[in-house]
Amino acid sequence: MAINRDYAGRTFAASEPYEVSRVKIAEFAAAIGDPNPVYRDTAAAQAAGYPDVIAPPTFAIVISMSAAGTAMADPGLGLNYAMVVHGEQRFDYARPLVAGDVVTARPTITEIRDAGRNVMLTTSTEIRTTAGELVCTATATLVERAG
Amino acid sequence: MSEQVRYDSVAIGAELPPVSYPVTRLSLVKYCGAAGDFNVIHWNERIARSVGLPDVIAHGMFTMAQAGRFVTDWAGPAATVTEFGVRFSAMVVVPDDDIGAVIDVSGQVADKLEGNRVAIALTARSGDTKVLTRARAVVRLP
10-residue block means of pLDDT along chain A (147 residues)? Predict the structure, then answer.
């Protein structure tokens, strides 16, 4: 099934609120092998000028990919997820994610275009606190391989 | 972790000391759980091969995370990353042995920007293959 080009420009509903926790940040930091104390130790994070432990930069993917994944699974879009690879990823940060943040992620499909026999689909996902503060915009380009 | 880097002490063109980061099957299993990305090509060799891959491959985001760690370790704890982008140009193949694969990251100060920000151009290789291209981070320094 071909990808439905009418989905370009579509913004999806914001995800359910996600609470950034110290435990999840520490788990993520351990999984990427990063021993930096600002991801684990509140005192170290405060000494560096943050209100509490912060998340590593790529932690935002945990929140953005979950929300964008819901959009990508929209049956009307017609994306064959088994053939999808991650082409590009970009984050623009207003500030680091901090333990205790409660955020939602709202994905928009910004572009659908052909690249040879493949199709490139770009999503831009805004991560905002439930109070409306923009923390990070995650832009992902996925490639649906022709096979 | 390194010392705090200050904006005034940074020169355009300066090289960041290269670092090699190991990645094993255990790394990928841990990353699957922590990131919530359980795509089978990151842990199941049988299925990875059946879809035409040479073996299990690392998550692109695992590689990007190593490049991020490279930048934040260099910049120091009071630096904040304001932009970070990469293109995933090749796969990091992770064999089922005790060694796994290695991601070699290097970088260079590409530009000094307003607001105490510094742009870092990054290179990541696994073996002879460039696994990230157009990799760039911007950090705000004290």
Answer: 90 96 98 97 96 98 92 90 88 98 97 94 97 98 86
Q: Sign of dihedral through CA atoms A75, B38, A115, B121?
A: positive
- B52 interface with A at CB cutoff 8 Å: no
CATH number for the B10-23+58-140 domain, one of 3.40.50.1100, 3.10.129.10, 2.130.10.10, 3.10.180.10? 3.10.129.10
* Chain B contacts in chain A segment 14-43 (CB below 8 A): 24, 27-28, 30-38
* Token pair belonging to B84: 């970070």
In angstroms, the Cα distances linking A42 to A95, A98, B49 are 17, 10, 44
Q: Look at B81 and A96 and tell me if their CB atoms are within 8 Å.
A: yes
Would the CB atoms of B69 and A30 count as touching at under 8 Å?
no
Q: Which residue ranges make up each domain of chain B?
A: 10-23+58-140
Q: Domain residues for A68?
A: 5-20+56-144
Q: What is the number of other CB atoms lying within 10 angstroms of the CB of residue B142? A: 16
What is this model's ipTM? 0.96
| Residue with the two structure tokens 């299990």 | B56
